[in-house]
Amino acid sequence: MHYPSSTGVKKTIILLCVVAVWSTARCWQQKTAADYYAGAYKTYGVTLRAALHNIIKGHTSVTYSGLYTYFPSTDTKSNGKVWDVYSDIPGGIPAYEYSHGVKQCGTYGGEGDCYNREHSWPSSWFNDQTPSYTDMFHLYPTDGYVNNRRSNYPYGTVASATWTSTNGSKVGTCSFPGYSGTVFEPITAYKGDLARSQMYMSVRYYTEDGGWSTSPATNKSDLLPWYSNLLYDWSIRDTVSQKEIDRNNAVYGIQHNRNPFIDHPEFAAEIWKTDMPPSVVSVVQANTASLIIDFSRYLDSTAAAMKTNFVLDGNIGNPTGIQWGVNNDVSKLLLTTSSLAAGTTYTIQIKNLKSINGVAMSDTVVAFKTAGTTAVDESDKILPASTALGQNYPNPFNPTTEIRFTLQGSGFTSLKVFDVLGREVATLVNEYQQAGEHQVQFDIHSMRGTVSSGVYVYRLAAGNTNIAKHLMILK
């Protein structure tokens, strides 16, 4: 979850940007977008949806023909090629790539013939009305043939595909609870991107959808319950990437509005999951005497501000201070403690908390490990140029394989394995880790559920970086 800044915590913002090694793009965004969402913070449900709508409405509308001229600034991969989410293979080699301005559709007979402009919220759902017809937050450059196969189907999960693209996107019967019609399932690496685009549309056109249609997933701009559940699930599994941050900033420069669910992913729960009890998402060490606890929901300030609700294990006791909210995100708390020892595992007992709308959180105990092993000065240490994820070896494998990764900066890190349906089957890393090189063994006996032969996805999430690669199990 990621977050622009709040009055009275400017020193903390600077600290977080330095210590937590957040990206330059993220820190820039925090400074420039600090007041952009004024009036939306600490609200939920319809009130929050209306507040966000009022903030992002009235954007500068572009022309449909002009979209091709804007895609180079919004959807370009590091190699200069078109960033097509329907054909790209993160960390791999796609079957084809497009150059901007070359092979714009026309006609096509198969994949790789041309690319066009995909309405991720199908245009038939809003009856081709403007300005939604050219709203760049839901428009992507994609292969024309795959775009055609997607048709106007909702997004969903597919158990048995009737058609599969070269990058693994699928068409078939929906296996997600609440809908059994035909859906299109993109690859896991872009499910969060597309989910946040759908959420944007639901908020941007709230009360401006009089001429819109219904669909199997929507009632005008409202998300049907099964679809909001799907999109929320995708949004928390595939968290905001640097690609989305850069695209959000680029579109902001063109349309002069932003996607709130990229800037503040926590908004999603406060609109579509208001009956969900809060839970702990992560614990991150900010420095030697403070922690950031990230929750899945906004917290009630009265309950959260009570220091006795947080008990750190034996050597520390209760926090010495508590800040409710970090960077206007009141799903985050900054706890000040006595000095934390390096390389030490602590537990925190959390009790008596509730969401901003009064949903009680179950009392829980979470563990975290501080960075380092000793108080060694690492100021002269040469850090890696970037965060990277290596290909597992051996691959294919059974029963074990080794995965190596490099962290540009220290921070909370997760390395998880998913099946082809996007279901998490193993957690290999889920803790604060130091910058540098790491390796971990993956043993299929640690997997949850039935282990079967096939292709799986392993994904590294560190700071604002998300990298995914494929591995294969042979039994």
Describe this structure in words.
With 475 residues, the chain is of the alpha+beta class. It has three domains: 45-270, no CATH class; 276-369, Sandwich (Immunoglobulin-like), CATH 2.60.40; 388-473, Immunoglobulin-like (Sandwich), CATH 2.60.40. It is built from eleven helices and 21 strands. The strands form seven sheets. Strands 8-9-12-11 form a four-stranded antiparallel sheet, covered by helices on one side. A four-stranded antiparallel sheet has the order 18-17-20-21, with no helix packed on it. A hairpin with a 5-residue loop joins strand 17 and strand 18. Helix 6 packs across helix 7. The two termini are 37 Å apart. Mean pLDDT is 86; it is low at 1-34 and 374-381.
What descriptive keywords fit this protein?
475 residues; alpha+beta; Immunoglobulin-like; 4-stranded antiparallel sheet
Topology:
Layout: H1 10-19, H2 24-32, H3 45-56, H4 67-74, E1 115-119, E2 139-143, H5 144-150, E3 158-164, E4 170-174, E5 182-185, H6 191-204, E6 218-219, E7 222-223, H7 225-237, H8 242-255, H9 260-263, H10 267-272, E8 280-287, E9 290-295, H11 301-304, E10 310-312, E11 321-326, E12 329-336, E13 345-350, E14 364-369, E15 388-389, E16 400-407, E17 411-418, E18 424-433, E19 436-443, E20 454-462, E21 465-473
Antiparallel strand pairs: 1-2, 3-4, 4-5, 6-7, 8-9, 9-12, 10-13, 11-12, 13-14, 15-16, 16-19, 17-18, 17-20, 20-21
Helix pairs in contact: 6-7
Instruction: Provide the residue-averaged pLDDT.
Output: 86
Low-confidence stretches: 1-34, 374-381
Number of strands: 21
The biggest beta sheet reads: 4 strands, antiparallel
Number of distinct helices: 11
Number of separate domains = 3
Please state the CA-atom Rg, rounded to the nearest Å. 22 Å
Looking at the structure, what is the overall shape?
globular
Oligomer: single chain
